[in-house]
Amino acid sequence: MTRIALAFVALLLGQGAAGAVSLADPKATATPTEKKPMRELPSPYTPNFGGGALPPASGQPPDTAYGAYQRGQYVTAFREATKRIEANPKDAAAMTLLGELYNQGLGVPQNPVKAADWYKLAAAQNDPAAMSSLGLMALDGRGVPRDPKAGRRWLEQAAALGSPTASYNLGLILIGTGTPADEAEAAKQFRKAADAEVGPAQHDLGVLYLQGRGVPKDPTQAASWFRRAADNGDLAGEVEFAILLFNGTGVPKDEHAAARYFLHAAKRGNAIAQNRIARLYASGRGISKNLVEAAAWNLAAAGQGLSDAWLDQAVTGLSKDEKVRAERLGNERAEAQ
Q1: Backbone angle region of 218, left / alpha / beta, with phi > 0 → left and psi within -120 to 50 → alpha
Q2: Helix, strand, or coil here: 290?
Q3: What are 86-116's pLDDT values in tens digits?
Q4: Percent of the chain as helix, strand, coil, to the nearest 5
């Protein structure tokens, strides 16, 4: 699922009165928990996410079941994990792997109830990945009765045992209460996941530093975490870092670098980045002025529901041929999203 980047109203491109360009968009403004469903990224039962099937510890022999899972050989993974449990009824990693396969329907018919049963057996052996999955399932009522309190307890246990995914999702629960104590604890949980290079957690921790929620307000820390999130492929972090770069907030101002980040995120389908790079093409800030590109990216963003009257006006002078080119490019980019 593509995450919409979180933009902030006060982040403006200060260009003077005439022809000023703003990166702020009230329609795109949100906090880490506003307009964003919980447990969006990542979760142990997200398709193609291997967080619940852990690699063998350093120095241990290769795990053939896990290796097959990582290669997409799910029937082999199921067979090898089953063999391991037959040999060792307390093999928590193999139990968790079977839970993953049943939960995602990989190599076996999807069955959340069977998945939960395997996770429970693994959780009884103190497997944090299984506990994390159980917590999410209890919160959602998937495979087990919906029980938010039990879900939170499972996440707390998994986080205490070092599960980055559990820490991230626990942070999302805490930040949603709005109390200062919970916001401070949410920041701690986000940091645990962020230190484990979970991109969404790095982004959300950056937002807290930018807003001064749960941690002292610190734009430099915010920029640092957004940069790490971007390096880990997080779209929201990439766009936020680009905004800070352009404005010189918490990081030396660099319009050219900001444009590169916006363009990269735009090509990955982020509507806000598409809108921002269109504005930069239209104004020639950080990138060579190109009204055809501005119009094309504006069309791509509009295709995702992000319209911009300023840009519509800025590209009205295109010739007929330029409009045709812009429409073709815009449609190609919209279809690729």
Answers
A1: beta
A2: coil
A3: 999 999 999 999 999 999 999 999 999 999 9
A4: 60, 0, 40
- Is 1 exposed, middle or buried (CB count within 10 Å of its CB: 0-12, 13-18, 19+)? exposed
Separation between Cα atoms, residue 141 and residue 39, nearest integer Å = 14
CB atoms within 10 A of CB 38: 14
The residue among 229, 231, 226, 222 whose CA lies nearest residue 250 is: 222
Going along the chain from its start, the domains and CATH numbers come out as 26-33+176-335 (1.25.40.10), 64-172 (1.25.40.10)
Cα angle: 249, vertex 213, 146; to 5 degrees: 130
CB atoms within 10 A of CB 205: 34
Q: Rounded to two decimals, what is the model's pTM?
A: 0.80
| CA 49/CA 303 separation, integer angstroms | 29
Mean pLDDT across the chain: 84
Percentage above 90 pLDDT, the chain: 73
pLDDT in tens, 270-304: 999 999 999 999 999 999 999 999 999 999 999 99
- CA dist., res. 2 & res. 304, Å (int): 12
Are 327 and 320 within 8 A, CB to CB?
A: no
| Closest by Cα among 123, 175, 127, 184 to 150 | 123
The pLDDT of 208-227, averaged and rounded, is: 97
d(CA 285, CA 258): 10
Question: In the structure, what pLDDT confidence band is assigned to residue 180 with cuts at 50, 70 and 90?
Answer: very high
Residue 281 · residue 293 · CB < 8 Å: yes
Nearest residue to 172 (alpha-carbon basis) of 185, 153, 157, 158: 185
Neighbouring C-beta atoms of residue 4, cutoff 10 Å: 18
- Centre a 10 Å sphere on the Cβ of residue 250 and count the other Cβ atoms it contains: 21
Phi/psi of residue 322, nearest 5 degrees: -65, -40
Tokens read off for 203:
């982004």
